[in-house]
Specification:
alpha+beta, Cathepsin B, Chain A, 7-stranded mixed β-sheet, two-stranded antiparallel ribbon, globular, binds 2-acetamido-2-deoxy-beta-D-glucopyranose, signal, Propeptide_C1A, Pept_asp_AS, hydrolase
């Protein structure tokens, strides 16, 4: 074994020497040898969008989607794109319901009807099901910040406030991004979707009118370039509202089972869900159709919002809202193959139920705590206890920068 390694090393050195003498490395503009890190750096400074990828996908008979060079990612290098999508620290394991809360999906819809899987339609779109909820059909832009984990969570919770509480409110990604701190991960360098929902439950989240994205400094929607460090937590509204009174809470935070039927049931009854999946190079080139991964390297994990499902030319798909503005994909949305856990999209779905009282949320945190202990009994009954350590381990599996 050791002998092999030594031989390999000698051989590698020889190859390097030959390459150097051939001037290959010098051609790359470097006087000395490129280390593995430097090579990676060189690779990461090329544009993410490649004409060759577009041609390859569009010529592939297996492809149920079309590729193109979209303007949203035009100026993005591989490194920029990875920042949007991030890195999964360790592989996502099969979700084990004994180690953290996995909630059975909703059985009762927002109108109080009991729904069984057999009642579910062949296609569904949350934008049409709840047309009075403005936020469901909004497409946002996370800019150059790896905040997908916050967008997927805040967008889903905003929608759910309207669905469950008949309240149009756009909640604040900025509150989550800047004030959740290490509990949620690393701000613009990535975070844990599930921790975002725990923050909604524990701390609540203010509205975007109180705390706009990047405090409206250099980085409002759409886009935020070149300023993209994690914004500072101020805990003060930019308008006249009081921070503590503006908080909106969730009564629960849970994972859903890795089961497409469970995801459908939850979306149909409780509203949009935060999903996470693995992003490859070809995904950056998506422009229309039902995506399945075909080509390219792994770029990282990404969090998004599930809004519907359907069937096209015999292919089952999910309809998903991205946070890369409306020039990307199908006016900001994409569809992805459903039922086969494409790119891991059916594992690690997270959500929570908003706290609303008689159609109006409580404005007082203390009151919330009292009410929550008696209110969602049906939710608590299904909640599996999780120790802090197990939660920590879980979150290590689920770092998604996005
Ligand atoms: C939300 O706002 C839209 C207009 O933007 C309105 O049509 C709708 O009725 C509002 N929904 C609620 C629940 O207030």
């Amino acid at each position: 074994m050791g002998r092999h390694t030594n031989e390999g090393l000698v051989l590698a050195r020889l190859v390097v020497v030959v390459l150097v003498s051939l001037g290959v490395v010098a051609e790359a503009g470097r006087a000395e040898l490129l280390s593995a890190e430097e090579q990676l750096l060189l690779e990461e400074t090329r544009p993410i969008l490649q004409r060759s990828m577009v041609d390859r996908v569009n010529a592939d008979k297996r492809a149920t989607w079309k590729a193109a060079l979209n303007s949203r990612l035009e100026k993005h290098t591989v490194k920029d794109f990875k920042r949007l999508c991030g890195t999964i620290m360790t592989p996502v394991p099969d979700l084990d319901s004994s180690s953290f809360p996995v909630l059975e999906p909703g059985r009762n819809d927002a109108r109080g009807r009991t729904i069984s899987p057999a009642d579910l339609p062949e296609s569904f779109d949350a934008r049409e099901a709840w047309p009075h909820c403005r936020t469901i059909s909004e497409i946002l832009d996370q800019g150059h910040c790896g905040s997908c984990w916050a967008f997927g969570a805040v967008e889903s919770l905003s929608d759910r406030f309207c669905i469950h509480g008949f309240e149009n409110v756009t909640l604040s990604e900025n509150d989550l991004l800047s004030c959740c701190g290490f509990e949620c991960g690393y701000g613009c360098e990535g975070g844990y979707p599930f921790r975002a929902w725990q923050y909604f439950k524990r701390t609540g989240v203010v509205s975007a009118t109180c705390d706009p994205y990047f405090d409206n400094v250099g980085c409002g929607h759409p886009g935020c370039s070149p300023v993209y460090d994690t914004p500072v937590c101020n805990k003060a509204c930019v308008n006249d509202d009081l921070w503590a009174e503006n908080k909106h809470f969730a009564t629960s935070a849970y994972y859903l089972p890795s089961d497409p039927e469970a995801l459908k049931l939850e979306l149909y009854t409780n509203g949009p869900i935060e999903l996470s999946f693995n992003v490859y190079e070809d995904f950056a080139h998506y422009t229309s159709g039902v995506y399945q991964h075909l080509y390219g390297d792994y770029m990282g994990g990404h969090a998004v919002k599930l809004v519907g499902w359907g069937v096209e030319n015999g292919v089952d798909f999910w309809t998903v809202a991205n946070s890369w503005n409306t020039e990307w994909g199908e006016k900001g949305y994409f569809r992805i193959v459903r039922g086969t856990n494409e790119c891991g999209i059916e594992t690690s779905a997270v959500a929570g139920i908003p706290f609303v009282q008689g159609g109006k949320r409580s404005r007082v945190a203390e009151m919330y705590r009292i009410v929550v202990s008696v209110k969602p009994l049906e939710l608590l009954a299904n909640l599996k206890p999780a120790s802090g350590r197990q939660c920590l381990e879980m979150s290590m599996y689920h770092i998604f920068i996005g």
